[in-house]
Amino acid sequence: MARVLLVLAASLVALAWPASCQRLPVLAPVTKDLATSLYTLPFHDGANLVLDIAGPLVWFTCQRGNLPAELPCKSPACRLANAYPVPGCHAPGCGRHWHDDKTCTAYPYNPVTGACAAGNLVHTRFVANATDGRNPVSQVNVRAVAACAPRKLLASLPRGSTGVAGLAGSCLALPAQVASTQKVANKFLLCLPRGGANGDGVAIFGGGPLHFWVDPSDYTQSMDYTPLVAKQGSPAHYISVKSISMDNTRVPVSERALATGGVMLSTRVPHALLRRDVYRPFVDAFVKALAAQAAPGGPVARAVRPVAPFELCYDAQTLGNTRFGYWVPSVTLALDGGRGWRMPGVNSMVDVEPGTACLAFVEMKGVKAGDGRAPAVIVGGFQMENIVLEFDMEKKRLGMRTMPYYMQCSHFNFTRSA
C-alpha cells in the first residue's frame, strides 16, 4: 500500500511540475521576406535575424546595453568563433596572439554579399517559447554569445532585419547554443514557409515532437533520413546525392561529378544553383521530359522569353495544374541511404511575373565545370519550402517529410499558450 501511495504522490508531483521547468524544445516562427526571398525569425526585443543554415555564428548590430563577453584570445570560445575564416576577410580574430589575454575579435559576414567586418563578442539572449510540439508553452530566455557588426553589414538583407542567425553545425551556431543552455538535443526542425498569405513557418530547436493542428500525428516519427556530410573547412550542411532523375529517367550526370564539391543546403540562395557540368545535362533532360509528357495528349508547354536569372520559362496557362503545383517532370535526388528527395512542380517551378513560370534551377556563375571548390548543387530555400526538415547534428543525419498538399507550415499553432 505504501508503495502505491509513493507512486501516486510522484505522479501528482510530475503533473504539478510547471512546464517551464521541463526541458522542452524551443520554438520560433519563421517568416519569408518576399522582396529578398530570405527567411527571418524574431530574436529579442524586436530584433529579427536572417536564417542562414550555413552560418557558423549569431551576429547583429549591437546596441547600448549589450554586455561584452570579454573573451580572451586564449579562450576556447574565441577559437570556436574563428573556426571558419571567411575567404577574402582579414586574418582570423587574434592573428598571432592566440595564447595571450588580448580581447577576442570575430569576423561576422553577410551571407548574401559575402562582406565581413570585425566585431566584438557579446552576451545576448534569444527570447522564444518552449513547446510541447503542439503549442507554445512558456517564454524562455536562452543565453547566447553573438558577434557585433556595423550597420553596413546589413546590405541586401530584408528591411528591418538586424543580423543573422547561423544554423550550421558549428559550436557557436544557434542550435548548439540552445542545446547547451537548455539541455536539449543539438538538432533543429525547420519548415520554411512560402510567404505571403501562407503565413509563418516554424523552427524548433531541440527536436520534436511536431504536431500540426490539422494532423495529430508526430511528424518526427515518419521521416526519411540521409546522412549529413561534413566538408573540411566548411560549417555548412551537405548531403550525398547519388544521381538526379527527371520523372523516372536518370539525368546523365555521374555520381563522381555530384561528389566533386558535394551537394549543399542553403537558405541564402532563393533557388537551386547547379554547377555547369550538372546544369547543362539537367536542363536538357527537363526539356526532353516535358516534351515527352505532352506526347500522350497532355498539355503542350509554350516556351516564352526567359526572365533572369532563369533560362527556361513558360506560359503558365499552357502548363497543367495538379495538387502539387504545375504538371511538369518531377526532379528526384537519389540520396545516400536509398531514399529519394522528390521535387514536384510546387518546388521546381516559380511564378516570376503574371502568366510566366520558370524552372527554378539556375546555373552557377563564375564557376567552371567540375571545379571541386564549388558544390555541384546548392539546394535553395524554394526547394526546401513546405517540407519538414530535421537537422540532427548529434546523429549526423537529415530527416525530411513533405507536407501534404492541403497543409502549410503555418498550420502549426503559434497563438495558443498553455
TrEMBL record:
Which InterPro entries is this protein grouped with? Aspartic_peptidase_A1 (IPR001461), PEPTIDASE_A1 (IPR033121), Peptidase_aspartic_dom_sf (IPR021109), TAXi_C (IPR032799), TAXi_N (IPR032861), Xylanase_inhibitor_I-like (IPR033868)
UniProt keyword terms in alphabetical order: Signal
Gene Ontology molecular function, alphabetical: aspartic-type endopeptidase activity
Q: Which residues form the Peptidase A1 domain?
A: 34-401
**Gene Ontology terms describing biological process:** proteolysis
Q: Which residues form the signal peptide?
A: 1-21
Organism domain of life: Eukaryota
Record PANTHER family: ASPARTYL PROTEASE-RELATED (PTHR47965), OS01G0937100 PROTEIN (PTHR47965:SF61)
- What is the name of the protein in this document? Peptidase A1 domain-containing protein
Record lineage: Eukaryota, Viridiplantae, Streptophyta, Embryophyta, Tracheophyta
* Gene of this entry: LOC125549215
